[in-house]
Design goal:
Elements: H1 2-10, H2 29-41, H3 46-55, E1 58-59, E2 62-63, H4 66-77, H5 82-99, H6 103-107, E3 118-121, H7 130-135, E4 139-144, E5 149-154, E6 157-162, E7 165-172, H8 178-184, E8 187-192, H9 198-206, H10 214-217, E9 222-225, E10 228-231, E11 236-247, H11 256-262, E12 270-282
Antiparallel strand pairs: 1-2, 3-12, 4-5, 4-8, 6-7, 7-12, 8-11, 9-10, 11-12
Amino acid sequence: MDEAARICMTHSFQIKEIHTYIGNIDVPPEDAEEVEAYLKSVEYDDYDLLIQLCDALALPEGPVAMEKRIADITKRYGSYPEENRKRCYELRDYFEKKMGKNLYEVLGIMKGEKTMSFQEVSIEELQMNPFTKIGKEWMLITAGNEEKHNTMTASWGGVGVLWGKNVVTAYIRPQRYTKEFVDAQDVFTLSFFGDNCREALTLCGKVSGKDRDKIKEAGLTPYYVDGTTAFEEAELVFVCRKLYADEIRSEKFIDKDADENCYPQKDYHTMYIAEITKVLVKK
């Protein structure tokens, strides 16, 4: 009985703080304090964590993709805190590492549907020319979750190694609506496409998502991964975790022509350095 009571309590608190509870805390303050004290006293073991993971994958019809479960909770309660969302993906990654297998494949979740249209590959397997992919074919910088997200086309950026990590650099001007989403969250994606999506990328570079639903107009399908957003139509996706951000400054230019030619309105980009945490390629 004690074990059952423990699980009833711990499965709702992936983070051991009562304010992270999703829903109404409809108990007297003294009871809420007792719950919080209990949570702080408990050391979660793998069984607790496994139950929490199962809860993040369950709907009445059975196991579902985590993104679908989160969307269902968001619909019922109006929001899903970012810290809870991040913890869900940490739990998934923790057990996938233990299993050495993809959790969705083990459970047969969403097989043949959109969330399985990509496969993860190691960065060492990657074959791409960044000068062509970014400078010639362009990319989409996307941030936000299934509740709200935005994207923009970019042709400036880089890929390399820094601080012992595989990183990208991305550049966003202050007036771009997507910047609000990138600044608000820890992760964003870079999506790369084939020639058939050139018109979509052109539209996403010209139209602001603040004014119109440009993603729908461009015929793109959001693909939710690790708490952020990419697109089903992409051939290659980098999931990126921010490491550093700073604004380009006029006084730091050695090549003064670059400053004058690229920033006549003084709308200097913010440069983001981000670790590539996942590489997805179209199956």
